[in-house]
Amino acid sequence: AGPALEGATASCGSSCRRGGGPLLVLEDDAMPTAEFVDRLREALDALRNESPDLLYLGYTQAAPWRRKVSKCVREAEYLWTTVGYVLWPSGARKLLAALPVDQPVDNFMARLMAAGTLRGFAVVPEILKQAKEWNVDNDVAHSDDAAWIQNAGSSS
After folding, report:
1. In the predicted structure, residue 152 carries a pLDDT above the cut 80
2. Range ranked top by mean pLDDT from 16-20, 79-83, 121-125, 150-154
3. Contact predicate 32/2, CB 8 Å
4. H/E/C letters for each residue in 40-91?
5. Cα–Cα distance between 50 and 99 in angstroms, integer?
6. DSSP structure string for 77-88
7. Which of 5, 18, 32, 124 has its CA 20 to 30 A from that of 82?
């Protein structure tokens, strides 16, 4: 994982082991920026009085920010991708209550944020990127690919 992620894992992981703390969730191709640990700590500190459910560390912004929380944190309305985020127990409970997942998981989470069910925030600018461009050398079929194949088969 590298030194940057080891420090972040220690920060989030210690509170998770005690129960009730946030959990750091990363895809296997998440690449942290050089300032990952410092900026994550700064963002978590900025959210101390916000009652967050979710903090995106890497994302694609699909709607304007709801508001500026701090120099490095924005409240989000709709974000795509799940390359890395911090999930609080309150967010996990809300995600479980909204099951089943009836669309790509990033859209599912974003829909809950847009509806005001899930309080989502983002580190600005992003502190995680994916190792390769979207859908390159990916072993998971993307929902757009499945829709294209389904629609292509029905056009004849």
Report:
1. no
2. 121-125
3. yes
4. HHHHHHHCCCCCCCEEEEEEEECCCCCEECCCCEEEECCEEEEEEEEECHHH
5. 25
6. S-EEEEEEEEE-
7. 18
